[in-house]
Amino acid sequence: MKIGAPNNPRKDILKEIEWIGKNKFDFVDLYLEEDAATPEKIDIEKVKNALKKYKLKAITGHTAWYLPTGSPIKSIRTAAIAEAKRYFEVFSKLGVKFVTIHANWPGGMFSPKAGIRFQVDSLKKLVAEGKKAGIEVMYEPTEKPYDSFENVSKILHAIPKLHLHLDIGHANLYGKSPEEFIKKFHKRLVHVHIHDNDGYDDLHLPMGAGNIDWKTLIPFLKKHYNKTITLEVFSNDKDFVLMSRDKLKKLWKS
Ligand SMILES: [Zn+2]
Known about the structure:
Layout: E1 2-6, H1 13-22, E2 27-31, H2 44-53, E3 58-62, H3 74-93, E4 98-102, H4 112-132, E5 136-140, H5 149-158, E6 163-167, H6 178-185, E7 189-194, H7 214-224, E8 228-231, H8 239-253
Helix pairs in contact: 1-2, 3-4, 4-5, 6-7
The structure holds zinc ion.
């Protein structure tokens, strides 16, 4: 198992990599999105050198969580795919193998069935575009009630080449169960995000600050999974990220 940390895409990417490197994480989860980490703002050589300096690899990456892949408007979905393609090129140059596309539900009067149809249309095209760039696409269910086990299952079944990226915090909301996703889809699971919450709001808290029973969940995850885990703890004080990392390491060992 490898523990990684993301760069904050609102901040200078080189400084963010420096913090991740100095704190000896195993890898960088490269968040390329607005506004400081868009393709035109990334200096490939400088990012490569920063990674090399700390013997880090960017194994996983993500595009903007608000990419409108589930828009009911076809031209907007087409634009979302074109936008993702620009990012795939940068990920490819930086050696990132797995890239996340987040769930995106249309909202309004559209049913989950329509949302599945719009997303499957986009995701099939994104998997094909990813392949051309040497990238495997992962699907991350988000914090919406529509990201239910049932709806996510339908999307994964519709696209066999799409991988699952399980965000444990998101899977703890609205009575959902992270265990259910792990049990059923561990063969499709290639990346995990960890953070805590109260079961109602997507708070991205440090491990132990919410209601997730990590002492039960981590051994269960370990039984089925041994790949990359990113700590997606959002706090201005990054000590909370380091505390979560130490907690995760301890629970994984015990
Ligand atoms: Zn996440």
